[in-house]
């Protein structure tokens, strides 16, 4: 069973997942990175460009999902180095520090809250999130073109692309596609007909929506929604 709540860290979400005995659903691209805890390990989920299928048996997880573009500054690693990866935090931070954090979470009555506390502490040490990146996410999330958004932000498209690689793991056009998929899924889950969903989410037509869902989610829209994706 999956549950989530708004984090005390601005823009983040704290979530937990318990085994259900059913098939494990793939994790879809969402523009975010996560700090994860499971079975005594601290990991980082890098930015996905394709569906991620967890390996092995279903197990318990706790996580903090950071607002798009904010995790690299907290973790101290460019997002593109973790693209489509799940990495041990000990590969990014000193091993002794990670062992102490693992012991702290393991001893906590609520691992998810302990994980959130660690994220809050790290955020207090790091520089404040770049407001340009937040505005970029807002604009692209509204369906605005990349070129128009770059012009509004006063950033050249090449420079914006470089900043996006560091913050999101990929360029602004890929980020735009992923955020558009999230809009479409929200509409379709709410019962909006697929043809209307396509137009309202910013696709040319329903076949365009179907192709993008297959590319980014790995399955047809109807199958994805039936599985709870």
Automatic annotation (TrEMBL):
<keyword id="KW-0804">Transcription</keyword>
<dbReference type="InterPro" id="IPR050204">
    <property type="entry name" value="AraC_XylS_family_regulators"/>
</dbReference>
<keyword id="KW-0805">Transcription regulation</keyword>
<feature type="domain" description="HTH araC/xylS-type">
    <location>
        <begin position="130"/>
        <end position="227"/>
    </location>
</feature>
<dbReference type="Pfam" id="PF12833">
    <property type="entry name" value="HTH_18"/>
</dbReference>
<dbReference type="InterPro" id="IPR018060">
    <property type="entry name" value="HTH_AraC"/>
</dbReference>
<keyword id="KW-0238">DNA-binding</keyword>
<dbReference type="Pfam" id="PF20240">
    <property type="entry name" value="DUF6597"/>
</dbReference>
<protein>
    <submittedName>
        <fullName>AraC family transcriptional regulator</fullName>
    </submittedName>
</protein>
<dbReference type="InterPro" id="IPR046532">
    <property type="entry name" value="DUF6597"/>
</dbReference>
């Amino acid at each position: 069973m999956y549950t989530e709540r708004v984090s005390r860290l601005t823009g983040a979400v704290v979530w937990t997942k318990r085994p259900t005995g059913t098939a494990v659903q793939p994790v879809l691209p969402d523009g975010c990175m996560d700090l994860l805890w499971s079975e005594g390990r601290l990991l980082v989920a890098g930015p996905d460009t394709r569906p991620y299928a967890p390996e092995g048996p279903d197990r318990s997880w706790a996580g903090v999902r950071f607002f798009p573009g904010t995790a690299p500054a907290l973790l101290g690693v460019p997002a593109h180095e973790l693209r489509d990866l799940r990495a041990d935090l000990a590969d990014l931070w000193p091993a002794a520090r990670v062992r102490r954090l693992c012991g702290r979470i393991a001893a906590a009555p609520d691992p998810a809250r302990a994980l959130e506390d660690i994220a809050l502490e790290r955020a207090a040490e790091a520089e404040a999130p770049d407001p340009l990146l937040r505005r970029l996410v807002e604009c692209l999330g509204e369906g605005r073109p990349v070129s128009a958004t770059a012009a509004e932000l006063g950033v050249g498209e090449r420079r914006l692309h470089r900043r996006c690689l560091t913050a999101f793991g990929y360029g602004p056009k890929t980020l735009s596609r992923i955020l558009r998929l999230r809009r479409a899924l929200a509409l379709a889950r709410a019962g909006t007909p697929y043809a209307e969903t396509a137009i309202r989410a910013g696709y040319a037509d329903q076949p365009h929506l179907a192709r993008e869902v297959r590319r980014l989610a790995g399955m047809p829209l109807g199958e994805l929604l039936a599985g709870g994706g």
